[in-house]
Design goal:
single chain, 211 residues, ECO RV Endonuclease, Chain A, alpha+beta, globular, six-stranded mixed β-sheet
Length: 211
Protein backbone atom coordinates (compact mmCIF):
# COMPACT_ATOMS: atom_id res chain seq x y z
CA UNK A 1 0.00 0.00 0.00
CA UNK A 2 1.51 3.30 -1.10
CA UNK A 3 1.45 6.01 1.56
CA UNK A 4 0.18 9.47 0.58
CA UNK A 5 2.16 12.58 1.44
CA UNK A 6 -1.10 14.11 2.74
CA UNK A 7 -0.58 12.28 6.03
CA UNK A 8 2.35 14.64 6.73
CA UNK A 9 -0.14 17.48 7.32
CA UNK A 10 -1.70 15.54 10.19
CA UNK A 11 1.68 14.57 11.70
CA UNK A 12 3.10 18.11 11.66
CA UNK A 13 2.21 19.41 15.14
CA UNK A 14 2.99 23.04 14.34
CA UNK A 15 0.83 22.92 11.20
CA UNK A 16 -2.00 21.12 13.05
CA UNK A 17 -2.03 23.99 15.56
CA UNK A 18 -2.14 26.54 12.74
CA UNK A 19 -5.03 24.71 10.99
CA UNK A 20 -7.03 24.70 14.24
CA UNK A 21 -6.48 28.45 14.64
CA UNK A 22 -6.65 29.69 11.06
CA UNK A 23 -9.17 27.50 9.22
CA UNK A 24 -12.31 28.92 10.90
CA UNK A 25 -11.07 32.48 10.22
CA UNK A 26 -10.27 31.73 6.56
CA UNK A 27 -13.58 29.94 5.98
CA UNK A 28 -15.39 32.86 7.61
CA UNK A 29 -13.64 35.16 5.11
CA UNK A 30 -14.77 32.82 2.31
CA UNK A 31 -18.38 33.19 3.48
CA UNK A 32 -18.12 36.98 3.68
CA UNK A 33 -16.58 37.10 0.20
CA UNK A 34 -19.39 34.92 -1.20
CA UNK A 35 -22.30 36.69 0.51
CA UNK A 36 -24.83 39.20 -0.75
CA UNK A 37 -27.47 40.71 1.53
CA UNK A 38 -26.62 38.16 4.21
CA UNK A 39 -27.07 35.10 1.93
CA UNK A 40 -24.08 32.88 1.14
CA UNK A 41 -23.77 32.07 -2.58
CA UNK A 42 -22.85 28.74 -4.19
CA UNK A 43 -19.40 30.10 -5.09
CA UNK A 44 -18.35 29.70 -1.43
CA UNK A 45 -17.49 26.06 -2.24
CA UNK A 46 -14.87 27.13 -4.80
CA UNK A 47 -13.35 29.65 -2.39
CA UNK A 48 -13.12 27.02 0.38
CA UNK A 49 -11.49 24.63 -2.07
CA UNK A 50 -8.87 27.26 -2.96
CA UNK A 51 -8.12 27.76 0.75
CA UNK A 52 -7.35 24.03 1.15
CA UNK A 53 -5.28 23.96 -2.06
CA UNK A 54 -3.37 26.99 -0.69
CA UNK A 55 -2.69 24.94 2.47
CA UNK A 56 -1.15 22.19 0.29
CA UNK A 57 1.01 24.78 -1.50
CA UNK A 58 2.05 26.30 1.86
CA UNK A 59 3.07 22.88 3.22
CA UNK A 60 4.56 21.19 0.16
CA UNK A 61 5.60 24.06 -2.15
CA UNK A 62 4.10 25.42 -5.36
CA UNK A 63 6.08 23.13 -7.67
CA UNK A 64 4.61 20.01 -6.01
CA UNK A 65 0.94 21.02 -6.22
CA UNK A 66 -0.81 20.94 -9.58
CA UNK A 67 -3.88 23.19 -9.65
CA UNK A 68 -4.73 23.33 -13.36
CA UNK A 69 -7.08 20.34 -13.37
CA UNK A 70 -9.38 19.70 -16.34
CA UNK A 71 -13.07 20.41 -15.77
CA UNK A 72 -13.78 16.89 -17.08
CA UNK A 73 -12.26 15.46 -13.87
CA UNK A 74 -15.26 15.77 -11.50
CA UNK A 75 -13.52 14.21 -8.49
CA UNK A 76 -10.02 15.68 -8.73
CA UNK A 77 -9.42 19.17 -7.32
CA UNK A 78 -5.60 19.18 -7.23
CA UNK A 79 -2.61 16.88 -7.59
CA UNK A 80 0.05 16.52 -4.91
CA UNK A 81 3.34 15.09 -6.20
CA UNK A 82 1.32 13.87 -9.20
CA UNK A 83 -1.27 12.06 -7.07
CA UNK A 84 -4.91 13.25 -7.33
CA UNK A 85 -6.68 14.80 -4.33
CA UNK A 86 -10.40 15.46 -3.85
CA UNK A 87 -11.45 18.31 -1.53
CA UNK A 88 -14.92 18.18 0.02
CA UNK A 89 -16.68 20.39 2.57
CA UNK A 90 -19.89 19.87 4.54
CA UNK A 91 -21.69 22.11 7.00
CA UNK A 92 -23.36 20.98 10.22
CA UNK A 93 -23.14 18.19 12.77
CA UNK A 94 -24.39 15.48 10.44
CA UNK A 95 -22.13 13.78 7.88
CA UNK A 96 -24.86 13.63 5.23
CA UNK A 97 -24.66 15.38 1.90
CA UNK A 98 -21.06 14.74 0.80
CA UNK A 99 -21.25 14.75 -2.99
CA UNK A 100 -19.45 12.33 -5.30
CA UNK A 101 -20.78 14.01 -8.45
CA UNK A 102 -23.06 16.97 -9.17
CA UNK A 103 -25.88 15.99 -11.51
CA UNK A 104 -29.66 16.39 -11.61
CA UNK A 105 -30.08 13.71 -14.29
CA UNK A 106 -31.51 10.49 -12.76
CA UNK A 107 -30.17 8.26 -15.55
CA UNK A 108 -26.67 9.76 -15.31
CA UNK A 109 -26.77 9.27 -11.55
CA UNK A 110 -27.61 5.56 -11.99
CA UNK A 111 -24.86 5.09 -14.58
CA UNK A 112 -22.42 6.82 -12.26
CA UNK A 113 -23.24 4.43 -9.41
CA UNK A 114 -22.73 1.38 -11.64
CA UNK A 115 -19.33 2.56 -12.90
CA UNK A 116 -17.95 4.46 -9.89
CA UNK A 117 -14.52 3.59 -8.53
CA UNK A 118 -12.75 5.85 -6.01
CA UNK A 119 -9.82 7.55 -7.72
CA UNK A 120 -8.18 9.76 -5.13
CA UNK A 121 -7.48 10.56 -1.51
CA UNK A 122 -10.08 12.83 0.09
CA UNK A 123 -9.55 15.87 2.30
CA UNK A 124 -12.88 16.60 4.00
CA UNK A 125 -13.69 19.67 6.07
CA UNK A 126 -16.70 19.51 8.41
CA UNK A 127 -17.77 23.08 9.22
CA UNK A 128 -19.85 23.33 12.38
CA UNK A 129 -20.08 26.94 13.57
CA UNK A 130 -20.18 27.50 17.36
CA UNK A 131 -19.34 23.84 17.90
CA UNK A 132 -16.73 21.22 17.01
CA UNK A 133 -16.10 19.89 13.51
CA UNK A 134 -13.00 18.63 11.84
CA UNK A 135 -10.48 18.35 9.03
CA UNK A 136 -10.19 14.76 7.79
CA UNK A 137 -7.96 12.71 5.52
CA UNK A 138 -9.52 9.60 3.93
CA UNK A 139 -6.96 7.53 1.99
CA UNK A 140 -7.89 6.04 -1.39
CA UNK A 141 -7.30 2.46 -0.16
CA UNK A 142 -9.78 2.96 2.69
CA UNK A 143 -12.45 4.05 0.18
CA UNK A 144 -11.75 1.10 -2.15
CA UNK A 145 -11.84 -1.43 0.68
CA UNK A 146 -15.13 -0.14 2.07
CA UNK A 147 -16.81 -0.02 -1.35
CA UNK A 148 -15.75 -3.63 -1.97
CA UNK A 149 -16.96 -4.68 1.48
CA UNK A 150 -20.40 -3.05 1.62
CA UNK A 151 -21.25 -2.76 -2.09
CA UNK A 152 -22.45 0.15 -4.24
CA UNK A 153 -26.02 0.20 -2.90
CA UNK A 154 -24.79 0.89 0.64
CA UNK A 155 -21.93 3.19 -0.36
CA UNK A 156 -23.67 5.48 -2.86
CA UNK A 157 -26.92 7.39 -2.31
CA UNK A 158 -28.84 8.31 -5.45
CA UNK A 159 -31.06 11.40 -5.59
CA UNK A 160 -34.75 10.75 -4.89
CA UNK A 161 -36.83 10.67 -8.10
CA UNK A 162 -39.04 13.72 -8.56
CA UNK A 163 -36.93 15.94 -6.32
CA UNK A 164 -34.48 18.62 -7.40
CA UNK A 165 -31.32 17.26 -5.78
CA UNK A 166 -27.86 18.49 -6.53
CA UNK A 167 -25.99 15.25 -6.90
CA UNK A 168 -25.00 11.72 -5.94
CA UNK A 169 -23.73 11.34 -2.38
CA UNK A 170 -21.73 9.00 -0.16
CA UNK A 171 -24.21 7.49 2.32
CA UNK A 172 -23.99 8.76 5.90
CA UNK A 173 -23.18 5.25 7.12
CA UNK A 174 -20.39 4.77 4.57
CA UNK A 175 -18.85 8.14 5.40
CA UNK A 176 -18.94 7.36 9.14
CA UNK A 177 -17.08 4.08 8.41
CA UNK A 178 -14.50 5.88 6.26
CA UNK A 179 -13.80 8.43 8.99
CA UNK A 180 -13.55 5.78 11.72
CA UNK A 181 -11.02 3.68 9.78
CA UNK A 182 -7.63 3.40 11.52
CA UNK A 183 -5.87 4.62 8.35
CA UNK A 184 -7.89 7.87 8.22
CA UNK A 185 -6.73 10.96 10.12
CA UNK A 186 -8.49 13.92 11.70
CA UNK A 187 -7.90 17.29 13.31
CA UNK A 188 -10.69 18.42 15.66
CA UNK A 189 -11.59 22.08 15.04
CA UNK A 190 -13.54 24.44 17.29
CA UNK A 191 -15.52 26.53 14.78
CA UNK A 192 -15.76 29.93 16.43
CA UNK A 193 -16.34 33.11 14.47
CA UNK A 194 -14.24 36.23 15.01
CA UNK A 195 -15.03 39.91 14.50
CA UNK A 196 -13.91 40.75 10.96
CA UNK A 197 -14.06 44.17 9.33
CA UNK A 198 -14.78 43.16 5.76
CA UNK A 199 -15.41 45.21 2.64
CA UNK A 200 -15.76 43.13 -0.53
CA UNK A 201 -15.08 46.16 -2.75
CA UNK A 202 -11.99 47.59 -1.03
CA UNK A 203 -9.43 45.45 -2.89
CA UNK A 204 -10.95 46.36 -6.26
CA UNK A 205 -11.22 50.05 -5.39
CA UNK A 206 -7.53 49.99 -4.35
CA UNK A 207 -6.63 48.42 -7.71
CA UNK A 208 -8.58 51.14 -9.56
CA UNK A 209 -6.57 53.73 -7.61
CA UNK A 210 -3.28 52.36 -8.95
CA UNK A 211 -1.69 54.11 -11.93
Amino acid sequence: MKSSRLIEIFEDEKLVGKIKRRLPYLFQLAELESSRAGKIGMEVGSVRERIIVALLIYKFGETNVETQISITEPEIDAKLFGEPVSIKTITGKSFGGVKLIWTVDAQKAKEFRESYHPECDILLVQINWNDFGGFYYIPLDVQKNLLDRIGRENYIKLPKPGTNPRGVEITKEALASLLEDSMSRRIIINWQRTEIEFNSYKRWVDLWRED
